[in-house]
Amino acid sequence: MNTQRVFDIFAEICKVPRPSKHEEQISKWLCDFAAAHGIEYVADEAMNVIMRVPATPGYESHEGVILQAHMDMVAEKDGHVQHDFLNDPIETWIDGEWLKAKGTTLGADDGIGISMALAAITDPELQHPAIECLFTVDEETGLTGAMKLQDGRLRSKRLINLDSEDDGQIFIGCAGGIDTLAKMHYDPINPSLSEAAHSIIPSLAIRLSVSGLLGGHSGDDINKGRANANQLIVWFLARIWPQTEIQLASINGGNLRNAIAREAQAVIAIPMDYKEQIRIEWNHFVAQMEGVFGEVEKDMRLELETCDLPESFIPADKAYRLIMALCECPHGMIAMSKEMPGLVETSTNLASIKMRDGYIEVNTSQRSSKEPAKHHLKWAVEQALSMACDEVTHGDGYPGWAPNPHSPLLEVTKKAYVGLFKSEPQVLAIHAGLECGLFLEKYPYLDMVSIGPQMVGVHSPQEKLSIPSTERCFRWLCQILQSL
Asked: What is the CA 420 to chain-centroid distance, rounded?
């Protein structure tokens, strides 16, 4: 089997822009790939692509299988990096045994899953039953492709999801999730328009910033003790608010609902008399945060600097309620699973705080393998944010995938691994959203497993893909296909 083919295909995929909700180019690329290789394919209304290849000689009577991965990638970059995810290719480089990107997410989640599937179905030497490849859109920000997949599109009763990120592990279950969006509308105070307003505007402006955090996947990494940049900014503002006459001009942090916030920034203004007090409080706060997170967040940077006075401010009463509400908003691991030791059962992510025209927008994401816990946490987040926000809404959410330890496909997958590597793979559930739960709603008879190569730092610019692990995973996939 030609493992190099996997990396060759991935290199081509990296040239195609494919941030979530902008999958037009990668969907077309997949259709062109299928046409060039004489593979039957169809693209549905959502831009999902399904490819079908027949069984090889001797496998005609074997039950078919679906290989599934998603097209889109998380579009995250370091603050100093100039990169247009809608037009620029991902620039990759090799660091020892790791494949990385230059200052951006790599997109191995889940470009490498696509690459393994395409390498398998175009390998002339590989023996296998009939294969359907299902490549979905918008997995990262809404699971839209899986939700819009029409009944009857899939023919096989077995599915191998290629969207996992841990070497030698088989996943047989995942958490469900639901997003929450809150908005606080306000009329900005503009000092230049009113002497009365000007009289309450302090004279010194300060920019507070948090950067250099690890961030990462809001499911896989939520229990790893990483700092959330939004929380750090809010904690400091709540700490100094009762002691000083603060005016809040802006607050921004985080980007995606499924990524832990790596960077955040706020601009405040205070009377000149409080300048030294604020700096002392900041230094104390920095020292305390280094004590809490320093072992994990080696590159954490907390910076304070003076800046130009802003043109407008958030009304003080609304700003105060917002900071208190954000302090009350839960973030992080809430509960561990009692059924599967080591698995996070319930968590939430204070994902982003964004200044918009006339309002501030807060995004959170709740996950749980228990449906009631997911909704209870949703209501807790709503209760906290309602202290300040006049509009709180929840997304439709998506279901979890209940583990089936007696799955026949699981047994084949385990035996294939043992036969190749002479050791037992781990069988786990994952505290992240996979599309498998949605597939089960439409195809309740599906027998499913999820596998993938080792990745680190997904959903952040630190994302990297293990080259040896990818080679092992592709060999494993091919062995599974030959064993079905």
From this structure: 32
Q: Are 322 and 237 in contact (CB under 8 A)?
A: no
Coil vs helix vs strand at 427: strand
Task: Decide if 311 is catalytic.
Answer: no
Share of the chain above pLDDT 90, in %: 83
User: What backbone torsions phi and psi does residue 62 show, to the nearest 5 degrees?
Assistant: -80, 145
Omega before 110 cis (within 30°)? yes
φ, ψ dihedrals at 310, nearest 5°: -70, 165
Look up 72 and say whether it is catalytic.
Answer: yes
* Contact indicator for 414, 171 with CB cutoff of 8 Å: no
Q: Output the pTM of the full model.
A: 0.75
Closest of 354, 112, 380 to residue 257, by C-alpha? 354
- DSSP, residue by residue, 46-113: T--EEEEEPPPTT-TTS--EEEEEE--B---B-TT----TTTPPPPEEEETTEEEESSB---HHHHHH
Cβ contact 398:177 at 8 Å:
yes
- The active-site residue out of 23, 109, 138, 139 is 139
Q: Summarize pLDDT for 64-111 with one digit per residue, the tens.
A: 999 999 999 999 999 889 999 999 999 999 999 999 999 999 999 999
What is the DSSP track for 441-466? HH-TT-EEEE----EESTTSTT-EEE
> Which one is catalytic: 72, 109, 110, 447?
72
Q: Which long-range contacts (CB under 8 A, 24 or more apart) does 382-386 make?
A: 382/180, 382/182, 384/325, 384/328, 384/329, 384/330, 385/180, 385/182, 385/325, 385/326, 385/329, 386/182, 386/325
Q: What DSSP designation does 227 have?
A: -
Residue 264 structure tokens: 């955040």
Q: Would you call 254 helix, strand, or coil by DSSP?
A: coil
- Count Cα atoms within 13 angstroms, Cβ side, for 473: 32
